[in-house]
Amino acid sequence: MEHSEHRHQESHASHGHHEHEQQERHEHHQQHSPGASWRTAAQATLHCLTGCAIGEVLGMVVGTAAGLSNAGTVVVSIALAFVFGYALTMRGVLRAGLPVRQALKVALAADTVSIAVMELIDNTVMVGVPGAMDAGLPQALFWISLAVSLVLAFALTTPVNRWMIGRGKGHAVVHAYH
To answer: What does pTM read for this prediction?
Structure first.
């Protein structure tokens, strides 16, 4: 009898611990909702920028090395930025135990607007800097323009992410899985 009471107490303590973790997650999410901090927005943007930058750089390198037109290079860069951006988010969400289909839905909800804004900004800069898209990979103009485009994308997307997180959208949907 004593052994079964001990199991019941352990089970109850474990259940209480699980409820406490869920409450902490909920409170953590609420802290970021009504007025998301700039720090939270910057972290979300940096996370998004990581995937975007991998895809953007790879796309620019592939497009330039393959001699694609500027439009072709931009299309490849945008496609790869979305692929890598979603993949990085899905990696974390899958680790939290979500099935692939649900993880994809979370990634789409979390990253689509952020990636789209970043891609609009960094590709506008790349196309707008005279000679940047036509510069070869060994030329500093290509790399400096690309670096500046990513810095500007980060700076201009952070307020967008702050606004979205403050309304429970964008990266706010991922916080429950961290």
So the answer is: 0.76
Contacts of 166 (CB under 8 A, 6+ apart): 32, 33, 34, 35, 36
Residue 59 burial (10 A CB sphere; 0-12, 13-18, 19+): buried
Residues 6 or more apart whose CB falls under 8 angstroms from that of 79 comprise 55, 59
The string of DSSP letters for 14-68 reads HHHHHHHHHHHHHHHHHHHSTT--HHHHHHHHHHHHHHHHHHHHHHHHHHHHTT-
- pLDDT tens, position by position, 73-115: 999 999 999 999 999 999 989 998 999 999 999 999 999 999 9
Question: Are 103 and 94 contacting, i.e. CB atoms less than 8 angstroms apart?
Answer: yes
Q: H or E element: which one contains 138?
A: none
Q: Judge contact between 146 and 129, C-beta under 8 A.
A: no
Positive or negative, the CA dihedral 106, 108, 111, 113 is negative
- Number of helices and strands in the chain (H, E): 5, 0
Tell me the residue type at 138: P
